[in-house]
Every structure is written in structure tokens, then in C-alpha cells.
Amino acid sequence: MKIFKQGILLLLFLLLFWVLLTSIDSQELIAGGVIVILLTLVFSRKAAVFGDFQITFKSLIYSIAYIFVFLAALVRSNLDVAFRVLSPKLPINPGIVKVKTSLNSKTGRLVLANSITLTPGTLTVETKGDHFYIHWIDVSTQDVDLASQEIVSKFEKYLEVMFG
Amino acid sequence: MADILYNTSAVLALIAIILAAWRLLKGPNVADRVVALDVMTIISISLIVYVASIAQRVIYLDVAMVYALISFIGVVAIARYLERGL
Amino acid sequence: MAVFGGIITFVGSIFLLLGALGIVRMPDVYNRMQAGTKATTLGILLFLAGIAIGHIECMCIFRILILILFIIFTNPISSHALARAAHHIGIPLTDKSVTDALAEDESEKEEAIS
């Protein structure tokens, strides 16, 4: 059952990609695209990219909210970087800290790690099991739980609903 | 007015490429050089799109797309190589 | 409309410049990566969005959208792979660094093996 859900979601996603890439002006193009996408799906059955995505109304709302949370974090992180780069004393206090995540799905962890990289002052260096090792440009705590609270939890509550 | 803004942005992007190239030449070790190269590639994608808008050729956008793809794969391949050989 | 796009492009190019400046000024490879990845991601997003807004009459807005999405997804991945490789081959953190939990954990594991 899971493989059908994953296949249909991936089909819709790739079809959207194809339609955006070629402007929509002929049915032959779209038909050819669908055939190629179906072949691709047959050959890549094991790459379960969307296998963990929950299809509920709540998860859809949370996905849209997540995009805005992410964009706000991206803008704040850029202002942060601009401030640090432009100030003559270079106010950094870097270090690698360890945080813990409670997400189980692989795609969820991928999105979480990418979001951490693009948010203020943090960069994912390594993932091992439940733990992420994060390079933090301004270390305020070295404790695992407190660091997780500060870095991970704001995204985790959305991703938990989206990916289960 | 709009043209002046676009051209100024392109000049700023060019200065950014020169700064990154300085790090590429000077960087103490290989990771620094690869980071500088990555930033240079990203900035040159924006310059390719600027050239496409000047020349009014939509096909240049495909060039930018392929360039982004190759730069991503190249950086990941170099990282893999540094980690444990190919 | 074109002036609005031009202003957005200008702001984006300032972020690109700040990213390159961060590459030059920061003391070690991880901090350089932070500045480089974040600033160039938002910078190129604004730069391309400004060009798309300024030239809305050509049908290229979808292609630019795909380009932006692609860069937002792949830029953090490549920087993560590079940071991991840099730590693995033992490029040191700068002297100002406070802590290195990853190196501590790895040395603990080696001691347990030996």
C-alpha cells in the first residue's frame, strides 16, 4: 500500500516539474512525459522519497505553514550573517554541539537537516542515528537537551505532523 | 532606472566572484578552495540568468540549470573523494 | 514593475557580496561554509526573483522558479557533504572554538575499540 502512495505522490511531483519545465502547449509533450515518468518509477522503486508523507488535511496545512516558518528563518539567518561579517571585530564563538531528534522518517530527517543548515548560525556536520552534530557559530549551551530545544524543536513540531 | 539597478547588481556579483577567487587562490587547504569554488559557481549562475535577460534568449536559462546540476554533483563527488577515495 | 524587480535584484546582489566577503573574512572552513551557504542561497533567490519580476512578459518565470527550488534544495546538501568530509580528514576548527562534540565522541569510540 505504501509503495502505491509513494508512487502516486512522486508521479504528481515529477509531472508538475515536467509541466513547469516545458511550457504547456501540446498534449504530446505531456503524454511523453507521463510515459517517461512511469518508466522512471519502475526503475526507482526503492527510492522512497515521499513514502513517509502523511496525506491528511492537517499535514497539508502544516506543510504550507512550514514554508513560511522556513522563509522567515532564512531571512533572519541572512541578517545574522550580514551582521557578523560586517562588524569589524568578527563576533563569533563557534563550536560543534550534539543535538537529538525524535523524527523517525528518513525524508523528515533530510528536510530537518537542510532546514538547520539554512537557519541562523547553524550547519549540520554529521548525522549518527538519532543525533545530529551541528556546527554552531555562537555556542550558548553545550548540553544536548538545551541545544535541541534551541535549534531543533521549532521545526520538529511541524515535521512530526508532516512525516510522522 | 531599472536598467541601472540590474547593471549595478551584475557588477556587485562580479566583485563577489573576484573576492571568492581570492580565497580560491589563497585558501590554506583543499576544503577552503572547494567552498570558494562552490560560491563562485552559485554567483555565476545568477550572472548567466542576467545575461539571458539581456540577450532575450530563454534557452540560456537551460544552460544555467545544467550548470547548477553539474556544480552540485561536482561538489558532492569531491566531498566523497576527500572522505574515503572514489 | 521593472523598477521593483530591479530593487529586489539589487538587494540579492548585496547578499551575494556579503557571502563572498564572509568567505574572505571568516577564520576557518566551517565558518566560511556558514557564511557562504546562507548568504548565497537567499542572495540568488532574490536575484533570480527580481529578474523574473522585471521580465514578466517572457514565459521564463517557471524555469526560474525551478532553478530557485533546485538551488534551495541542493545548496545545503552540498555544504553538508563538504563539512562532513572536512571534519573527517581532520581539518581543525579555529582557535576561538569552544567545543567539538563530534571529535570527542569519535575519540571515545576509538578508545573503546582499542
Describe what this molecule looks like in 3D.
The complex is a heterotrimer of chains A (164), B (86) and C (114). Chain A has a 3-stranded antiparallel sheet with strand order 1-3-2. Chain A contains 6 helices and 3 strands; from the N terminus they run H-H-H-E-H-E-E-H-H. In chain A, helix 3 (57-86) runs antiparallel to helix 6 (153-163) and helix 4 packs antiparallel against helix 6 (153-163). In chain A, 60% of the residues lie in helices and 12% in strands. Chain B has one domain: Helix Hairpins (Orthogonal Bundle), CATH 1.10.287. Helix content of chain B is 90%, strand content 0%. Chain B is built from 3 helices and no strands. The termini of chain B are far apart.
Structural features:
heterotrimer; A: 164 residues; mainly alpha; 2 domains; three-stranded antiparallel β-sheet; 3 strands; elongated; B: 86 residues; Helix Hairpins; flat
Strand order of the largest sheet of chain A: 1-3-2
Oligomer: heterotrimer
Secondary-structure-derived class of chain C:
mainly alpha
Structural class of chain A: mainly alpha
Q: What is the arithmetic mean of pLDDT of chain A?
A: 80
Low-confidence stretches of chain A: none
| Order of H and E elements of chain C | HHHH
Count of discrete domains of chain A: 2
Largest sheet of chain C at a glance?
Answer: none
Radius of gyration of chain C: 19 Å
> How many distinct helices of chain A?
6
Helix content of chain C: over 70%
- Total number of β-strand segments of chain C? 0
Largest interface: B-C, 51 and 52 residues
What is the total tally of β strands of chain A? 3
SS summary, helix count of chain C: 4
